[in-house]
Every structure is written in C-alpha cells, then in structure tokens.
Amino acid sequence: MPRPPHGHGPVVGDKPKHFKATLGKLLRYMKSSMPLMIFSFLLAIASVVLTLNVPNISGEATDTLIIGVVQKQVYKTLEQQLPQGMGVDTMDEAVEQLAAACGKTEYTLTLRDVAEFMANNGAGANGTDTSSVPEKYRDALLDMTLYEAPQIDVDAIIRILIMMIILVSVAGLLAFVQSYILAGVAQKISYRFRKDIDQKISKLPLKFYDKVSNGEVLSYLTNDVDNISTTLNQSLSELVTAITTLVGVLVMMLRISWILTLLAVVIVPLAFLLVLLVVKFSQKYFVQQQKYLSDVNGHIEEMYGAHQVIELFNAQDESKVDFAALNNKLATSARKSQFISGLMMPIMTFIGNIGYVLTCIVGGILVTKSGLGVGDIQAFLSYIRRFNQPVAQFGNIMNTLQLTVASAERVFGFLEAEEEHETGDEKPENVRGGVEFEHVSFGYDPEKIIIHDFSSKIEPGARVAIVGPTGAGKTTMVKLLMRYYEINGGAILLDGVNINRFDRNKMRDEFGMVLQDTWLFSGTIRENIRYGRLDATDEEIVAAAKTACADHFIRTLEGGYDFEINEEADNISQGQKQLLTIARAVLADPKVLILDEATSSVDTRTEQLIQKAMDRLMQGRTSFIIAHRLSTIKDADRILVMRDGDIIEQGNHNELMAQNGFYADLYNSQFSKGVTE
To answer: Which of 178, 313, 458, 472 could crosslink 435 through cysteines, CB 3.0-4.6 Å?
Structure first.
C-alpha cells in the first residue's frame, strides 16, 4: 500500500530566504523578555571580566615565587664569596664591614649597596652581578637586604591565591545567576512559541492541512522551537561571552606585550576565513537536516497512526523501505553537516597551537631582553589559549544561528500562514433548522470545480438523505454547510440568513456531527461524553447515554462511566465507540444534525441499535444523513441523489423508486447478486 503523501512546511528551502528579516522578527518576538536578556548578558560580561584577571594575578604569584627563589640563590652565592673577598670568616662579619663602609646599618644593607661599593672600589662582582637576571626581577633582587637569608614570601602568595579564589567564586556565581535567568527567558519564549502554534492550529483552514502533514506541524512544536530555545539558552550567551572574552583578552595581552599580541592577532584573519568557509559550506546541510527530520517525523506519525491499516494490507515492508529512504537522507545530511562543522575545532586548535608555540619562543627571548617576567609569559599563554577559544566558538555559534534562523523562518511561516477569514460576527438566534443551498459551486482547487450548481431547500425538522456513488460530493456538501471550506459561488442559508453573516464558532454550536470515524480521546467515558457540552452535569451525561442506547454497555465495563479509554481507543468495540459519539451529540443538543456513514463499519445488530439511537437523536431536528446502505434511509423525508457534484434526482424513497432512475439502480444493486456499474 503506498505511503500516504504528506507535504512540507510553508517556508522550507535550501537556506533561510530572509536571514535579516527573520532575525528581526525573532528579536521583536522576544521584545518583552529583552530587559532580562540584557541583564543576563551584563552578568555574563561581568563574569568574564572577573575571570580575565585571574591569569594576571596567577602571574603575580609566579613572579613572587621566582623572585624568592632567585634571592635565595643569590644570597647563597654571596655567602660563599663575600666573606672570602672581605677577608673574614662569616657572612655576618662581611655584612657588618660592608654596612660600615657604605654608611648603612647591617639591617638596611642591600645588594644594591654592595654592588655599588664593589664597583666603586674595583673589587669585582663577588656574587653581585645581576646582568643575567631578567630585568623584571632585577630591582627586587637588588633591593634585597643581606642581614639574614631571604625567604619566599608565602604570605603574599597566599593572599594572591585567596584573591584568585574570590574572583573565580564571584565569577561563577554571576555565571550561575546569568544561566538561571537566561534559561527562564528561553523557556518562557519557547512556551509562547508553542502556545502561539497551538492557537494557530485551530485558526487555519482545513485546506492548509490538505498540504501539510501532522508530522510537519509536530516538527514546528518540537524540533524548530527546541532549536530556538537552545540558541536563546546557550548560543546567545556564548556569543556575548565570546565577544567579551575576545575584547578583554586582547586588552590584557596588549598590557603585557604589544609584540606578542601582534603575533597572536596575525593568525586571527586566517582563523576567521576558515570559520566563514566552514559555515558557508555546512549551512545547506543543516537546513537539509531539518527538512529531512521533518519528513521522518511525518512518516513515523502517519505510519504509527495507521499501523492497523498497514498490517491489514501487509504493507510493513513498503513502509520500512520508505522509512529507510527518508532515514538515509536524514543520516546523510546530518553526517555531512556534523562532520563539516566538526572540522572547526581541530582546525582552530591547530592554528591556536601554532600561535602558542610562536608565543613561547618569542616570549622566552623577550624575558631575557626586555622587562617581561616568567609570570607575564605564563599569563600571556593563558590569554592566548582563551583568545583562540572564542574565535573557534564563533564558527559553532554561527552554525547554530543559521540553523536557528532556518527554524525560526519555518515557525514564523506557519504562524503567518493565512487564517480563516471571519465574514460575519452574528450569532444564530432561535434556530429552527431550515437550510437552503442556492446554486452552490465549489472546488478544493478553484480551477477544478467539483460541485457545479447545487440547489436544494430543506424545511426545519426534515430528514434529508444524501446518496450517490463515491466521489459524488456528498461529504463535501456537509463540509460546506459547516463552513470547513468556503464556497466558490452561490449561497448557503440557515433559516433564510446567509451563513457568511454568522461567526463560525457560534454557528457551529448549532450543529452536531456523528461520523464514520469516531472521535474519542484518552480519558474516562464520562469525560468523552461531556466533550459535547463541558458544563453538563453527571445526570445529564447519564440521560444522554440512555438516549443513545449506550448506558447498558457502559455499566458492564469496569468502573462504568469512569472506565478509562486508552490513547488508541481500542479497548472498546467500534459499535460502542459510535454509541458514545451519539451520546455526545445528544448532550450537545444541536438544532441541525449531520450523520455521515455512522453505521457503515458495524454489524447488522449493532447497526439496528445505533439506528434506534439515531432515530431518537433526530426527533425534532433537521438531519442530514449520508449513507451507502440505502435501506437505512428509506424513511427520510427527502433523498438527494448526487453524481459528479450535481443533484440529478430528489424526492422520497417511493417517488425515486417510481422514477426508475439512477437511485432505483443504486438501491436495487444492493440486493442483487452482482453490482451494477
């Protein structure tokens, strides 16, 4: 059995058709949440700024540690050389003599004083040569006192570490608050999207769903909205963080060394070029991935909903083949998009490592030739790592934004789809049930008219049967009466008033329908019957069930009226389902009743039971009965015989049989051995 066709969303293409316009719509849609988003972005910026100071502070700790180590090494050398050069036995004696010679006390004598004294008296270096020490550490070393052996300033290092912990903790707290706020905003916007889509579903005309499958609509509610939510929750925050990090790191690197910064920045154009190339090449596969995912969802939803029919016609293999083809397209597009976008990080890491190595080499040279310290190089290496990270993030963020815009374009396309236009706002008053069709013409496609000139007048309370071969337009006439579709020409009157003057919902309150396909929902029998009138009491529900001949079988079920109907409604029989739909129609108490093949799928005994219930239901109401079993409509006040969209005969059963025309052929064919063409 062929797979049922299904359409695609209203705005799907190889890429977003209107990137800027869609992005503008999305920003306007989020207008009410913009203050919170801006506040969360400010928190993200503050968090990044705080963390950007950590490498510098960490570098200060490193420099403090190195200065302490160098001072201890120099003091150890002086301990070995100074006493010998001064002709004394101990370091204390050497310091005492040098202090006196320099006009200092032994408590205030520094290495600078000793170096100047040695140079002025031509005594040689004697361990005071600091030319090999990096310039940044030289002053701290020369200002070292010689009274006692220096120690590493552990207290200063601890203070620095405490400061780092405080900065990291505050930054983490700000990031947590920012994430919490943005997550709430994302879910609020997602909730609004889903709510708007849900409301839009009921506002669209049926012709829209003739082209778009249920799976496609579900895709809007799930995949597309989830993409937008993910972007709001993660990608936008990452974008703000990446920009802040990039600018902040650049400032910090310039403060350390413009030479190293220039070296790091040189590779950025190459990185951005690669990012743009990857984004441009992968975007079409991301859009295809969304389209094929929608197709797969549509196929699964349709096949699952019709799984009994699939098994009945042994079409499982063909369904699997169709699914495999769709799944293969999805897998191929997903594999390509993920592979190409996955190249981003390795490429950026490779480029980042090149910059990292160059920084190490040049930085080592600058430590010996300029005022940079080891802590500065350590901080710079940390910054260059962070500098490359946002550059790589931009690629992933751009990919996500492209995918999000494609999803937003699809969702906005659905939300902006043309709705049913209300042509009136009146409410039917004191409806008697008189219906008149005046030269009605209609076609699902305006260029292919299937009902050409339909005219008939039905008196209030009349039972009207509509018969004819399949495709004659019987059900179409009922849909036009309910205004599921708008007619192309002519008019339909209810009690002499054109139905276009009525509000659709108010008008439909006067109609009740019992169809061949039963509409039952997951829940109790009581809830399903109450769906006909939500404010009905339990007593009214029981009375409606009795009128519909359903009370007896309901009480035989476990729980009675509280019996739970499952999601597929397959834990009760087809006939029982039909009786429940009739009970629901009884509860609604409509003025005009429509029965469309209500007994076509049940056995003869159940048909008699349903027919009895419908007879009760039709009493005092204008009724339209569509039936292929002509024996069930013999008592109709008028029978309209349709063929190819036109009424070719009308009258009661006896009158039509006496004419010995098309109706007589249809009626007699049901009781003959063969079927007349």
So the answer is: 458
